[in-house]
Amino acid sequence: MTGVPVARIVREKRLAIVPLAVAVVVNAVLAAGLVAPLAGRVANAEGREAHAVTALNAAEQERDTAATIRERKDRAERDLGRFYTAVLPADMSAARRQTYVRLARLASDADLQSQRRTEELQPPRVTGSAPGPVLTRLEITMVLRGEYENVRQFIRDVEASSEFITIDNVALAEGPEPGSPLVLTIVLSTYFRAGGP
What we know:
Layout: H1 6-12, H2 14-87, H3 92-109, E1 113-122, E2 135-146, H4 148-160, E3 166-173, E4 182-193
Antiparallel strand pairs: 1-2, 2-4, 3-4
């Protein structure tokens, strides 16, 4: 069987082939002129979307970090307010009452003899623009006599005390005669808000 010549088929079916050929050419022109640029636009849009998603994730992370910082700041301010109202003495007379009675009792409980006690009010130090209340320091110097174990007990008891009393300096000396009790000179401090609560 011999093949049918292509030229003869084209001549006989010309009315059907010409519109098909025109449709193929139009389709190719449309693909080149419209679809290719649209595909480029879609690719650009996808790139912008990916960039926007990255920027959104970064912004959400910054928002979460800012919220965490704000929460910690609020908690610190609440804790500081609680410290000022519940831990520190309210004013100078409360600071004196609190330290005078408490320290005398701790010295007595430790079997230490009080030799001397002085108090000095240290005015607040203002540095630049202080954001919070200014604290005044009440410095207490005590000279006590007793045995080494009693001195250790007194210091432990002061550190464990529920009152806000800090130990600033400790000096321990032997008594004037051999075998005599030790002499403890201890400087302590407490603080209260300047001008009251």
